[in-house]
Structure formats: structure tokens, C-alpha cells
Specification:
heterodimer, A: 146 residues, alpha/beta, 41% helix, globular, B: alpha+beta, 7 helices, 52% strand
Chain lengths: 146, 405
């Protein structure tokens, strides 16, 4: 049994525990299953804020973000980037038009995000823990803020 | 063929095998509709040659509206070309190519750009036109009206390095280049040329705290008709040492800027300081600082700030002439020779010019920003400006709608 399937089984078991519904709604970071290096919350923050353009394994990465006003966008921004959606918009506007970096690529839904990450190792994204499956590698942080 | 076209052609010829089959162009843009009115121009400006921002003697209203379109052509995985066309109301809505550069992602940490760029001094210098990117109608006027207008676009090479430094995000931006333009100096619009401009901006960020330091300098050549005439006259009279004060063909100009900001839950605090200096010349040296506190709500932000803008002018030219004259002994009762009369007149002119270049303004501002949607914000701001010398005050009322797309 490969490691990503094992992780999915463990995840399913955890989600079956009492109190798990709240956990199922948690946002988790997803990368392509081929990316097995350790990924920290700080790595995620730096990638999404345009301060790094590569994963820990050295591969180039493009972050994905779900379009506003999806609640998942607000949750992700506050938990992982310590900014409100509005603060993120102003931050990315400055970075884009002063030539420092490009903002994340928007997608229509978390489902689309998962499909893109599963199909291309150059993407990083996030899903609800309950929607995680072996097509992606899921990384959960107990305290996303660094 | 201009510089940008040449660079693009070189890049196209050097495309590696990994180039995209069909290069893609991404289009984005920003704009601001911004109107302001200063209710007492005379009170704020007084007799100084340093008008308050855009508010010169002719008008107490300003339309700083602008619209920009940016296109980025991705040539391959690491190389892209960017152009930014800007149309400004103050320029009769003419469209100018204000940014045009090639960007090469050298590695994960280092980016090289070459072309027409804007310098970065204080926290919002290079993003000044992107009204949507900051809370206020404008960045604090006490700071940004103190950064000389010549520090705008430049033909340059720029290295931008960013990396983790322990638990901090560190960035360094280094540029070198040259440029030319036209700006108001000593009450007159003059042409200038920057023969060598270079600068460094360092920034550290962590947990919502940002610290930024910049040092910029350039060798300036300014063509000011009155001062050029004074220079030639002094040279002809044989006063080379004094003439150097009027030699604007090689001015050492510098900017020093410090910025700090802190996000704490729904609060944001910022502090900025900038100093523009034109070494030992009659061009005023200007300093400005500002403290601002902002409270963010879901769709609205309210802010209040206070700062000061001050300037000073070197009178070394007058001091040197006085020293020269103190060594001249005339017979008692004899009339002053014409040349001595001219030198006394120059002393008076220098001191008058120095007085006209000195200003001290205290500026308090309050304002609010409201998000109309995810890409559009409306802002209102009121500034209270006190001219310290006269004690008179003026109020600046501004309203803007800023957007990105």
C-alpha cells in the first residue's frame, strides 16, 4: 500500500471519531502526491505571499486560491496568511503592479482546486479535510500561523 | 527602436527550448478617480517656493485621477516582459509608457529587471499610483510630498532578492540607472538629467511587522536659467569658488527613508520618515515624518495620522561671498564699485531664496475607506495643515474611488 493511500485511511479513521465533524471542516494544504518533502506553515505563507516561488524540494510552484466571496477564501487568508481578504487584495495589488510577484491563480471552487493540484505537481492549494483523497497529498497544521 | 524593444528582441532571440509554444499575455490594471480642494492656498503655501504637493499658486483644486493598463508577456518559465501604460488627468489624459521592463527570475530568490522602472524609497513610493493598495486617499503627505519629484521613473537595472532570514522575511532591492525629466525647482519648471542614480532598499517582515530602510542617490544636472546666468557671471568675474554654489551641472542628491508598520488584530500602525537632500545647493533639503493608526472593520477602515514637513536651504553661497567681501578694504566714503554692489545683491538674493525655500508644516489627517466590492474602494479624507511660520491653517478635502482589475 503506498504512503498516500495509507495517509487517506488514517485520515478517514480520524474523521470517524466523535467530535470529528468540526475537524472535517478544517482547511488543509494539498500538493501533488509526488511532493514528499516536509512542508511547513511558513513555507505555505511565503509561497502564497509571493516571497517564494518554489516548494521545499526545489520545484517551481504556483499557488491556487478559490475566488471570493467563497468562505473558504476568508478562512484560508485568516488562518494561513494572517490577513483578511481585503488586506490580501491590497497586498497583491501592490506586488503585481510594482513587479515583485504575481498573485495566486484563482479557481472557481475547492473541487476544481483539488483537481488541478492532483493533475499538476506545479500547483499548491487547499481543501476541506473531509474532501481529501489519495489524488493529493494532504498536509494538516495544528497551528497554521507561524 | 527604444530600449525596451531592443531588450525584447534580444530575449526573443535567446529563447530556450522550454519556451511556451504560444506566449501568453496577462492584462491587469488599476485606476483612481481623485479630487481634492485646499481651502486656503495662501495660508498653507505662504511665501515659500515649496508648494504643498500639487497645490501651487495657480490652483487650489487638483485632479489626480489616473488609469493604468499593465500587460505581462510570459516569454518562458523565467522570462517575461512588462509594460504599464498610464493616463493622468494632470497630463491632459495623455497615455505614457511609465513602466517597461524585462524580468528574469534568476532563481527562486533573485529577480533581475531591466528597463524603465520606478524607485522604491518609503513604504509606498513605487506603489504611490496604486491607490487601491493603501488605506488613505494618498500616502501621508508630510512624507510623500517631501520626496523630491525627480525621484520617479528611471532607466535602470534592478536586482530584487528575497529570502527567509531565520524567522524573518528579508528582501533587498538594488538598482542603478539614469534618467531625465522636468520638475519644479526653486519656483521654476526645469529640465534635469540624472547621470548616475543608484539605490538600496532593505526590508524585514515578521508576524505583521515590517521594517524598511532606503538610501537613494543620484548625480544631477539641472538646467535652471537664473542660476545658470549667475554661474556664468561669477566665472567671468573670476570668482570660481563662489560660482561653484551655482553650478548645477553635478549635484549630489540623496534620499534617506525609514518605514515601519505593524498589524495587530484589527489595528494597523505605521511610522515613516523621509529626507531629500541636495548637497550644499540652493535647492531645499526637505524632511517629513508621519504616524498613522488605522482601525479595520469588515468593509471599512478608519484612520488618523499626524506628521510634519520641514525644509531648509544652504546659505553657503552667501556666507562665502561675505567672507570674500570682508577681505576687501575700501577708502572711507568711497562709493562701492559696481562689482561689490553686484556681490552684495547676490548675498541678498541668496538669503531671499533661502527664506523662500524654508517651510514648516504640521499636518493632521483623518479619513475612511469603504470597500464597494472586492476590487473597488471609496475613500474620504480631511487634512488640517498648519504653516508654522505664519500660524495660518488650511484644510485639504479629498475624495477618491480606487480600483484594480
Amino acid at each position: 500500500m503506498d504512503i498516500s493511500k495509507l495517509r487517506s485511511l488514517i485520515l478517514a479513521a480520524v474523521l470517524a471519531l466523535p467530535g470529528a465533524p468540526a475537524l472535517a471542516d478544517t482547511l488543509a494544504i494539498i500538493v501533488h502526491p509526488s511532493m514528499q518533502n516536509e512542508l511547513s506553515a511558513d513555507d505555505v505563507r511565503r509561497i502564497y505571499l509571493g516571497k517564494s516561488s518554489q516548494l521545499p524540494n526545489g520545484d517551481a510552484v504556483t499557488p491556487l486560491i478559490v475566488r471570493q466571496p467563497d468562505p473558504a477564501h476568508t478562512e484560508f487568508a485568516q488562518q494561513f496568511l494572517q490577513r483578511s481578504p481585503r488586506q490580501l487584495n491590497t497586498y497583491w495589488a501592490k506586488r503585481l503592479f510594482t513587479g515583485k510577484s504575481r498573485p495566486p491563480v484563482p479557481v472557481q471552487s475547492l473541487r476544481e482546486m483539488k483537481a488541478k493540484v492532483a493533475g499538476n505537481k506545479a500547483f499548491i492549494g487547499y481543501v476541506r479535510l473531509s474532501d481529501a483523497d489519495p489524488s493529493v497529498r494532504t498536509v494538516v497544521f495544528s497551528t497554521p500561523s507561524s | 527602436m527604444n530600449l525596451f524593444s531592443r531588450l525584447l528582441a534580444i530575449a526573443a532571440l535567446g529563447l530556450p527550448a522550454t519556451a511556451h509554444a504560444a506566449p501568453t499575455i496577462d492584462w491587469n490594471g488599476y485606476g483612481s478617480f481623485l479630487w481634492s480642494r485646499l481651502d486656503d492656498l495662501a495660508a498653507v503655501n505662504g511665501d515659500t517656493d515649496l508648494p504643498y504637493g500639487e497645490f501651487g499658486d495657480l490652483s487650489n483644486t487638483s485632479n489626480e485621477s489616473r488609469l493604468a493598463l499593465q500587460g505581462e508577456l510570459q516569454l518562458n518559465d523565467r522570462l517575461s516582459g512588462v509594460v504599464q501604460l498610464v493616463s493622468r488627468a494632470e497630463n491632459d489624459h495623455n497615455v505614457d509608457l511609465e513602466w517597461a521592463y524585462l524580468r528574469w527570475q534568476v532563481n527562486a530568490d533573485l529577480t533581475l529587471r531591466a528597463g524603465k522602472l520606478r524607485r522604491n524609497a518609503s513604504l509606498h513610493t513605487d506603489s504611490y499610483d496604486i491607490g487601491y493598495s493603501y488605506t488613505g486617499v494618498r500616502p501621508p503627505t508630510s512624507v510623500y510630498f517631501s520626496i523630491s519629484p525627480i525621484y520617479e521613473g528611471l532607466n535602470a537595472v534592478d536586482l530584487y532578492y528575497q529570502s527567509a532570514l531565520g524567522q524573518y522575511d528579508f528582501s533587498a532591492q538594488l538598482y542603478a540607472g539614469s534618467g531625465e525629466g522636468n520638475a519644479e525647482m526653486l519656483g521654476v519648471r526645469t529640465d534635469y538629467e540624472e547621470r548616475l542614480a543608484a539605490g538600496l532598499t532593505l526590508a524585514l517582515e515578521r508576524d505583521g511587522t515590517t521594517l524598511q530602510f532606503s538610501h537613494l542617490r543620484s548625480d544631477l544636472d539641472i538646467q535652471h536659467p537664473d542660476l545658470d546666468a549667475a554661474y556664468q557671471g561669477l566665472i567671468q568675474m573670476g570668482f570660481d569658488d563662489i560660482a561653484r554654489h551655482y553650478d548645477f551641472s553635478d549635484i549630489d542628491s540623496r534620499i534617506f527613508a525609514l518605514g515601519a508598520s505593524k498589524r495587530l488584530d484589527s489595528w494597523e500602525l505605521s511610522a515613516e520618515l523621509a529626507h531629500s537632500d541636495f548637497r550644499d545647493t540652493l535647492i531645499p533639503s526637505i524632511k517629513g515624518w508621519n504616524l498613522t493608526a488605522t482601525k479595520h472593520f469588515e468593509r471599512m477602515s478608519l484612520y488618523a495620522g499626524y506628521g510634519e514637513q520641514s525644509s531648509d536651504v544652504s546659505t553657503r553661497a552667501a556666507d562665502d561671498i561675505e567672507t570674500l567681501l570682508s577681505g576687501i578694504t575700501l577708502p572711507p566714503g568711497a562709493p562701492l564699485p559696481p562689482i561689490v554692489q553686484q556681490l552684495y545683491a547676490m548675498i541678498n538674493a541668496v538669503r531671499e531664496q533661502a527664506d523662500r525655500g524654508r517651510i514648516n508644516r504640521y499636518i493632521a489627517r483623518v479619513g475612511g475607506r469603504y470597500e464597494l466590492d472586492q476590487q473597488t474602494a471609496m475613500k474620504l479624507e480631511v487634512e488640517h495643515i498648519q504653516n508654522q511660520a505664519s500660524g495660518k491653517t488650511g484644510m485639504l478635502y479629498s475624495v477618491s474611488v480606487d480600483f484594480v482589475f
